[in-house]
UniProtKB/TrEMBL annotation:
UniProt key word Repeat: no
Organism: Candidatus Accumulibacter meliphilus
Protein's name according to its UniProt entry: Regulator SirB
PANTHER family referenced in this protein's UniProt entry, alphabetically: PROTEIN YCHQ (PTHR39594)
Bilayer-crossing regions: 6-27, 39-61, 67-89, 101-123
GO cellular component term of the entry, any: plasma membrane
Keyword Endoplasmic reticulum on entry: no
Keywords noted in UniProt: Membrane, Transmembrane, Transmembrane helix
Length: 130
């Protein structure tokens, strides 16, 4: 698979993953029973696995790795924050208020990750100002 094909696959999975998280977060806030549907519970794991696999493949092909390339390190740290906040929002938050807080925090982390990827700068959204 070529780098460009992997990049398109990766970007498509980013859109599906982020959009899916947003919808599931809204369902969580509305206490929708849709969150318990089997496809809603399984599909995000499939999309995120393909997303991670394409990221690793692109890193190998381009020989750019986290902890060697600053913006990739920032993206990885942002990803860990996104996963932690997303888990608190959708599964582990003790109150609706706590879940809402972590949902917003996860969305902000997601936006940071995307801006880091687009700008190729650890500054993320501030890269266009600096």
């Amino acid at each position: 698979m070529t780098y460009l094909t992997l990049k398109y696959l990766h970007v498509g999975c980013v859109v599906l993953s982020g959009g899916g998280f947003f919808v599931r977060g809204l369902w969580m806030l509305g206490k929708s029973p849709r969150l318990q549907q089997p496809l809603v519970r399984v599909l995000p794991h499939i999309v995120d696995t393909v997303l991670l696999g394409s990221a690793v493949a692109m890193a190998v092909i381009s020989a750019q790795y986290p902890f060697a390339v600053g913006w990739l390190t920032a993206k990885l740290i942002g990803l860990l924050i996104y996963i932690g906040c997303g888990t608190m929002a959708l599964k582990r938050g003790r109150s609706q208020g706590q879940r809402a807080f972590f949902f917003v925090a996860a969305l902000l982390a997601f936006a940071y990750i995307v801006t880091v990827a687009v700008s190729r700068s650890a500054l993320g959204p501030l890269a266009w100002i600096a």
